[in-house]
Design a protein that fits this description.
The structure is a single chain. This protein is mostly helical. The protein has a single domain, classed as Helix Hairpins, CATH 1.10.287. The chain contains three helices and no strands. Helix 1 packs parallel to helix 3 and helix 2 packs antiparallel against helix 3. The longest helix is centred in the last third of the chain and has 26 residues.
Length: 79
């Protein structure tokens, strides 16, 4: 799948869906790394793709959470 299509799909998801997607990507990444360590298949490109997608998901989550939590609240400052 192309990057633009992936970004459009991720942007259309809700925050909860993104968190679930992130969890499944972490599990998939673990399995791919495990297969690579066993020497089964050539999965370097798959690992790279999964890592980048996971980073995109985490970025979207981090961008959305402060907007939801910080509405109307002031940031704490050290005195």
């Amino acid at each position: 799948m192309k990057r633009k299509d992936t970004l459009e799909q991720l942007n259309a998801m809700e925050t909860d869906e993104l968190k679930e997607q992130g969890d499944s990507l972490k599990e998939s990444l673990f399995r791919l790394k495990f297969k690579k360590s066993l020497g089964v298949g050539d999965s370097v490109s798959d690992i790279r793709r999964e890592r980048k997608t996971l980073a995109r998901v985490n970025t979207l989550i981090m961008q959305r959470e402060p907007a939801q939590k910080g509405k109307g609240k002031r940031a704490k400052t050290k005195s």
